[in-house]
Amino acid sequence: MRKFNLFAISFLLLSLLFIPVLGGCSTQASSKLKVVTGSSLLTYIVQQVGGDKVEVTNLIPPAQHPGDFNIKPGDIQTLSGANLFILHGWPGEKYADKFVASANNPNLAVVKAGIDGNWMIPSLQMAAVEKVASILIQADSNNTSFYQNLAKGYKARISSKESEIKSRLAKSNISQISVIASIRQADFLKWAGFKIAGTYDSPDSLTPQTVKELVDKGKSARVSLIINNLQDSADAGKGIAEELGIKSINLSNFPGGYEDTGTWEKAIDKNVDLLLESLQK
Questions:
Q1: How far apart are CA 237 and CA 242, in angstroms?
Q2: What is the C-alpha separation between 201 and 223, in angstroms, rounded?
Q3: 275 pLDDT exceeds 50?
Q4: Which of these, 147, 145, 115, lies nearest to 128 by C-alpha position?
Q5: Exposed/middle/buried for 114, CB within 10 Å: 0-12, 13-18, 19+?
Q6: pLDDT for res 94
Q7: Listed residue (240, 250, 251, 245) closest to 217, CA to CA
């Protein structure tokens, strides 16, 4: 009996010693800001600015258009335990209101970045970094300096990447090349230096009459390339390309749209690689 009591007392003492350690691990894990995002663009920026102070989950597959997102039960569970839900503020994010209501999370802050345009463009990527940094700071002011420093470092990398890409594009006489493109790629292509002879919207908008008009524009402008938006529909403008006897390629607006492009840097490099390869005779 005494042996049993001694064993019980020893076990109790050891348990008491381990409680602070286990409690410390639990507190440290729960202290991370839990963020859910509406695209891989937002996810990557949150990772770069938030570092090890955040735990971020993206909802929408990077090769999928955000407007085509269907909520799954697991997504609702994820949002129910989050602190922040960051959206772009695009018209296509119509799922968001019902999604937030289903999560029933009174501690959830829903914030829209509200930055229009193609975030693959370096200047807009920088603007998005500043916006995400301000969102994280508002939610977690104790780590203000941490977020500001990481944001500054990432913006420096964006600037360096822009200079590198502009140098690559300048060697290919881009300013003399006319293209027809998805409206969702047009701004990026203008930034790259291409001449935009015509644009089209979603694949559904490519009626026979629209295709004919774009083919006529392509002939008149001596268009060299048709450029689709991967997240809308791969090869949406292929028919136009075939009529003109030119190439058609798909560019991605999100990190991860193509294999091994999970960062903004790799995603923009892939787009530029596709453009330059398509222009080779």
A1: 9
A2: 18
A3: yes
A4: 115
A5: exposed
A6: 87
A7: 240
Ordered structural domains, the chain, with CATH: 29-159 (3.40.50.1980), 172-279 (3.40.50.1980)
Q: CA-CA distances (angstroms) from residue 83 to 20, 165, 208, 265?
A: 26, 37, 48, 28
CA-closest candidate to residue 126, choices 163, 87, 157? 157
- pTM higher than the cut 0.90: no
- C-alpha 150/C-alpha 59 separation (Å) is 24
pLDDT at position 281 is 63
- Give the phi and the psi of residue 148 in degrees, each rounded to 5: -65, -40
For residue 272, how many other CB atoms are within 10 A of its CB?
Answer: 18
Distances (CA, A) of 43 to 11, 77, 85: 45, 18, 11
pLDDT digits (tens, 9 = 90+) for 153-166: 999 999 999 999 99
Q: What is the pLDDT of residues 10-33, one digit of tens each?
A: 433 444 343 343 333 333 445 899
Question: What tokens does 23 get?
Answer: 């409690």
The residues with which 182 forms a beta bridge, in sequence order, are 200
- Considering only CA atoms, give the Rg of the chain: 25
Which segments within 155-261 are labelled E, that is strand?
178-182, 195-200, 225-229, 247-251
User: Do residues 76 and 99 lie in contact, with contact meaning Cβ atoms separated by under 8 Å?
Assistant: yes
Token digits of residue 199: 């644009």
The number of helices, as runs of H, and strands, as runs of E, in the chain is 10, 8
